[in-house]
Amino acid sequence: MEPVSIILILLVLVLVLFATEWVPVDVTALLLLAALMLTGLLDPDEALAGFGDRTVLTLASLFVLAQMLLRTGVIGWMVQLLTGAPGRRGAQPPASGVSLIRRLLGGVTAVSTVTSNTATTAVFLPVMHALARRTGVPASRVMMPLAFASILGGSVTLIGTSTNLVVSGFLPELGLERLGFFELAWVGVPGAIAGLLYLFFVAPRLLPERDSEMEQEVRAYISDLTIVEGSPLIGQTLAGAALGRDHGLTVVAVRRDGRTFYAPDASFGLELGDTLAVESDSEGLLAAKAGLGLVSRSEEKLSLSGLESEVRLVEAVVMPGNELIGRTLRESRFRERYGLSVLALHRREKTVERLGNLRVRGGDVLLIQGTESRLRSLGDTFAVLADLTEQQRDGSKAPLAAAIFVGALLLSGLGLVPLVTALIAAVALALALRLLSPAEAYRSIEWPVLILVAAMLAFGGAFQSSGAAEMIAGWLAGVLQPLGGLGALAGVYLFTLLLTQPMSNQAAALVMLPLAVGVAGALGYDPRPFAVTVALAASNSYLTPLEPSCMLVYGPGHYRFTDFLRVGGGLSLITFVLTLLIVPLVWPLAGAN
């Protein structure tokens, strides 16, 4: 059988498997690699070269650095800044309601310009859900805009989405230069501005109103947190601190100099050394510890600082027969016996007792922090429900983490070193400085994405060398030739957008890129505007929930498939029109011929 025939058969099979997901996309990619080698279209070195490609290594590094920013609280700090949460004395009062949600959406778009849009959506998902709950806005009105805002930011920079990196990495195979760091911003910035205006003023009229709950149960914990030197809460009233509205903390009592003030009112002033008895979920408690200058004395007495990358955090339920039952944590000398810190306790009944004075009951859930070896010593009378280690934040290292990330981007942006070199160096520094542990770094990498990209890079090479790309490009050129240059661009954009619906954005881009370049050559146009159009079309998929960012919000927003078509149709039209207006002006169609 001719190589072209084999390639076309494999292409059809891959498209079917991507569309139906009978097997996971990364498994499909591995099957494709095996088929390329078994049929002799590529030798093993050619087929596996993609795993060492700079695009794959760049993606892996970005996944790790995104986790570093999350782990050190940089993302949390940005959330506080965007939502107007108190960060220092004299801060402006926080925004509220719709304006607060709009501000956060703008921030999501900004963050997504330098991190994966999928990762950005995942980070901001619980934040947006909590914000919707506190402002009384149905989650269905904010979850889809969250996903769309993250996608809008992806077209501003080279690293805004993995699709841009994939396109840039494949361009040298087609005889073209890689994309510049801000090259797509000519379309990306106007698209982000127009898209946000659409999300602010048009989308709310189209979005459904449905009640929604997060899939995971949210447990309300009681904890004692003390205000220490440097806390932005010192000198503020409870109303000014907005602990409930902006941080999800319910203050049930304040202890000061041996006195306890139960259910303090909004005018109650906070002072250095106050211990707040607060109720919140685990994420709210950890965020408060990281960003508000609040500490758990139990944690301090264990001297856990400096061991952050080794310390784990778990939810553990007290089982029947546990010797803690009927005793307080202080009476049982829990900290001295186990070498662990209890940060908080969850119980269905509300209580204002000091955490150390609460008598433990069977079924109580404890939020326990300590080293892995110590946690293993808990025994069978504790049942670990969940590992929340990655929710921990170490705000003291946020400036260092931000400096490493920004430094890497500057080194690359100024052309001093290649992007992959700067990012790998940043990852090495993050690990050496213990901003996150090696195990956490490996867990943060989305391996299915890397396998998919590496396999499709190999397939793209075979697609070119077999002559299949040239043949299909000739057919497409015949169809698009009567439409002229702008019509050809429109056809490439729409065909790419169509392919992104049943298959991943990266796979659609890699399938279309050689075809688009071939069409440009057949029609006598410069191939670069066609390559840029493929990147923009593949990165802006709003019509279905099959895009990863949209899949993350599909359940929490209680959406239907048609909701995305109704709301995303307008955004798709905006990006389509802007692409056709701007691309020919910035990248002239008749540049190379």
TrEMBL record:
Provenance organism: Deinococcus proteolyticus (strain ATCC 35074 / DSM 20540 / JCM 6276 / NBRC 101906 / NCIMB 13154 / VKM Ac-1939 / CCM 2703 / MRP)
Membrane disposition: Multi-pass membrane protein
The protein, known as: Citrate transporter
Q: What does the entry list under GO cellular component?
A: plasma membrane
PANTHER family cross-referenced by the UniProt entry = BASIC AMINO ACID ANTIPORTER YFCC-RELATED
- MF (Gene Ontology): monoatomic cation transmembrane transporter activity
Q: Which InterPro entries match?
A: Cit_transptr-like_dom, DASS-Related_Transporters, RCK_C, RCK_C_sf
Pinpoint the RCK C-terminal domain residues.
210-295, 299-384
Record GO biological process: potassium ion transport
Coiled-coil boundaries: none
Q: What is the lineage of its organism?
A: Bacteria, Thermotogati, Deinococcota, Deinococci, Deinococcales
Question: What coarse category fits the chief subcellular location reported for this protein?
Answer: membrane
- Membrane spanning residue stretches: 29-44, 56-80, 146-167, 179-201, 400-433, 445-463, 475-495, 507-525, 564-587
Query: Which compartment or compartments is the protein found in?
Result: Membrane
Top-level taxonomic group: Bacteria
Keywords, in A-Z order? Membrane, Repeat, Transmembrane, Transmembrane helix, Transport
